[in-house]
Write a structure and sequence with these properties.
- The longest helix is centred in the first third of the chain and has 12 residues.
- The protein is 23% helix and 16% strand.
- It is an alpha+beta fold.
- The relative contact order is 0.19.
- It contains four helices and eight strands; from the N terminus they run E-E-E-H-E-H-H-H-E-E-E-E.
- A four-stranded mixed β-sheet has the order 4-3-5-6, with helices on both faces.
Length: 161
């Protein structure tokens, strides 16, 4: 949480984070580059409740299948690739094994997003980037003027959810 310069209004941001994931680390760094210290939830040890998970999916406009992580999880062992599985079964699997929840999920006053790629977070941050930002892999995302490296302004886009 931080305060916008010249304002006493705090900015609440939550990141469902896996510190072992480069995309999650880059997303967290972009949030901090906007001067925001988020609430960090390690979803592996403190997963959202079923009600919260469903709410996050709805707010992010994601289906359970879209939030389901395949790589490095029990996805194949559980047979979760079966397209006939209903949404409730996929949610049950994510509740039983939080590693099946894709990450990072970020919640801001402007919406909820699955931030893959990490720069997706720029669309829902209520504060601009303060300085240039380069991902761990060397890809520049934000230039020194707070603009996306591809020339688009790194500012809020989209609809609040």
């Amino acid at each position: 949480m931080t305060e916008q310069e010249g304002s006493a209004k705090p900015v609440d941001v939550i990141i469902y984070h896996n510190p072992d994931c480069g995309t999650s680390r880059n997303t967290l760094a972009l949030i901090r580059n906007a001067g925001i210290e988020p609430h960090i939830i390690d979803y592996r040890t403190n997963p959202p409740s079923r009600t919260m998970l469903v709410s996050l999916m709805n707010r992010a406009l994601l289906s359970p299948r879209e939030l389901l992580r395949e790589k490095g999880t029990s996805f194949a062992d559980r047979g979760l690739g079966d397209p006939a599985l209903p949404d409730d079964a996929l949610i049950d699997a994510m509740m039983a094994d939080p590693l099946l929840i894709n990450r990072p999920l970020v919640v801001t006053p402007l919406g909820v997003r699955l931030c893959r790629p990490s720069e997706t977070v720029l669309d829902i941050l209520p504060l601009p980037q303060r300085e240039a930002f380069t991902k761990e892999d060397g890809e520049q995302v934000v230039d020194a003027h707070g603009q996306r490296a591809n020339g688009q302004k790194a500012s809020v886009q989209g609809i609040a959810r």
